[in-house]
Structures are given as structure tokens and as C-alpha cells.
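Could someone model pyridoxal-5'-phosphate with this protein?
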Amino acid sequence: MYDEEGRRYLDFFAGAGALNYGHNHPDLRQPLMDYLESGAVVHALDMQTPAKRSFLEKFDELILKPRGLDYRVQFPGPAGANAVEAALKLARKVTGREHIISFTNAFHGMTLGALAVTGNSMKRGGAGVPLSYSTPAPYDDYFDGETPDFLWLERVLSDSGSGVEHPAAVIVETVQGEGGLNAGRASWLRELSDLCDRHEMLLIVDDVQAGCGRTGTFFSFEDAGIVPDIVCLSKSLSGYGLPMAITLLKPELDIWEPGEHNGTFRGYNPAFVTATAALERFWSDDVLAKEVVVKAQQIGDGLTDIVEGRPDAQVRGRGLLVGIAFDDAGASEKVATAAFERGLLVETSGPEGEVVKLMPALTTDPDDLRQGLEILDDAVTTVVGSVAGERA
Ligand code: PLP
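Reply:
Sure, complex below.
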């Protein structure tokens, strides 16, 4: 990116995950320009259009079928929070229950339903009303390995005296993008899925940030081998930063009445056009997916080098959704500022903003990744000092 003075920045922020394929990718821009030039319909509410049909066909052909997944596709409003609200409402409607289990440090969006399953107290405070019908459970490794996984959840769900009502669903992020880059292990996710089956709760995976290839597979839960009942996608779905979201639901859950969950901007056809182009360009083969694995290794190694010898800093995350957590929460903001001054855009994450978060486009050149890591290393050294004994 370049600012008005022509200064060059490497963008390791990528629109908070909305730009997995980078800014203005030419293979997506051209179909968009062609579509607009053609005068085809831009706004179509929830009506059928050729652009929407093409997206649905490609999504089925390139994403769902090859993974053996059978989902209905719902178009809620275009933001991630819209996909989450649709998921929560549907889970409640299907089960006839009100309660949702969420996780510590979760982030699901800023609308009231999504905030009720979000952990961050500052964001929750903005609601202005009590946030209810949800209970947070400890996320993977919340107790630093001291407590067996799901000890609390399993117990309260099995105990009619626990005071926790039988939930409609559990909502989970496989990597907590906003909540500090905590990554749920595949075995933990499998256990969660099994627990949902045993206690007859729907499993909702919020893949708004970790999906669309960010962790190396299209859906972030593929490695775990689980099949959620409901999946939320948005951010990089359109591939071009255009607003678009979908909620995927198992066919038997589709009990919506027509118009029961509507919204004006569910049919933004330019987003369907770029989304289809993105699927064709990046998901017709496994080239991108393989590249992400290699780049994730490169960036993981780079971060490991940066924290080496720094007991007050740890590497967090998975795939290309990674960063460094500092024991001194204030350090991360300073590192982000120092990185910005050196031409690197990064975000902070976590309840105290204690994590410097890297989320480069999946298409980032390995040389740009290297440069970004060098800038980050320099920024960390400037802010928290060089490591005693100096690294080579
Ligand atoms: N869910 C997750 C996991 C997110 O990371 C976000 C946004 O960062 C949302 C939902 C909300 O998306 P939006 O800001 O588009 O409403």
C-alpha cells in the first residue's frame, strides 16, 4: 500500500481478514469491471440472479462437493455479525431452546446476539443492555493445561443442579482472531463436536476470520475432520473486500419461513461476481492451499526466531493468522506503532491488546514475508530491547 506521500507499506493486516487474496487482485478486478460495465443488476435483494446462481454453483462444485459437505446456503446481511445472528437465531428456532455456549475470549461481532457470545468486556460494555441467554466456557488451554479439556462443560451439562440450561448450540472459532490468537487443537475440536452430539447441541463454527484459506484449508475446521451443523463465513468470501456473508446449515435445519430472517443488502451482486472469480482462481486446485502451508511455516519460523531468548513473549496462532503475545500488554501497541513507522501494517489482538497480530494476504510473496518479519524483528528489538547475549 502507498500513502498520499507515496510511502510504501507492507500490509500484514489485510482488511482484518477481508483481503486474503490481497488488495485489488487483477483476476478479480477484471470480472468485476466487466460485470459493472455490462449494466447487469447490482442490487437484487434476495432474488435469483445469474451472478448469484454462478456463485452457488461454483461454491458447490469447488468447495462443498470435494469436501463431502452438504449445506444449504443462507444469505444473511453482508457482515460477519449478520451470519452469526442468523446462526444463533436458527439454532434457537430449531431446538426450541434459548441458551448458547460460547468460549472465553471469543469474538463474534458487535450486534446484540453476537455480543452476548463475545468475551471482551469493553466490547460487551457497549451494548448498553444486559447480554443474556449465553454462558462462556473455557476455550482450549484456558487453564494452561492444568484442567482436563471440557471438565467444566461436561459436568454442568450432565448435572441438572448446575444451573446451566440445556443449550441450543455451542459457537466456536477454531482460532480466536480478535481474542488473542488462541488456536484450538484439532483433538479439542473433535472432542467438542463429540460433546455436542452427546448433549444434543448444535455446533456452530464461526469461520468469519479463520475461513477462506487463512489456516491453509478453505474451512479452518477441515484438519480436525469435524462437520459443524452451522458455519458462518464472511470477510474474504467476496475475495475483493466487498461486503458478503453466508451462513451454511445442514439441510434438515432449514426450517426458516420465507422472509423470517430478511435484510436489504443480501443480494449485492458485484460481491457474488468477485466471490465466484476468487473460487475459480484460487480453489480450482490446491496450489494456494499448499502455498499457505509453506508460508505459514516461514512466518512461524520467523516469529519463533524473534521470540527466542525472550521468555516474556510467545508465538500464537495457526496458519497465516499468527502473532506474538507479550506478557507486558503495553508492548504490543508500541511494537505495532514501531512497525508502522518502519512501513509494516499490523494489528493488535487479545483482551488487553497484548498480541501483535500478523495476517498477511495468502498471496503475499515469500520475499515480502521475509521483509515484513525483518521489520517486525527490528520493531520488537526497539521496543523491548535486544535479547541478552544477542542472537547471531
Ligand atoms: N466473527 C468473527 C470470528 C470475527 O472475527 C468477526 C470480525 O472480526 C466477526 C464475526 C464480525 O464480523 P463483522 O465485523 O463483519 O460484523
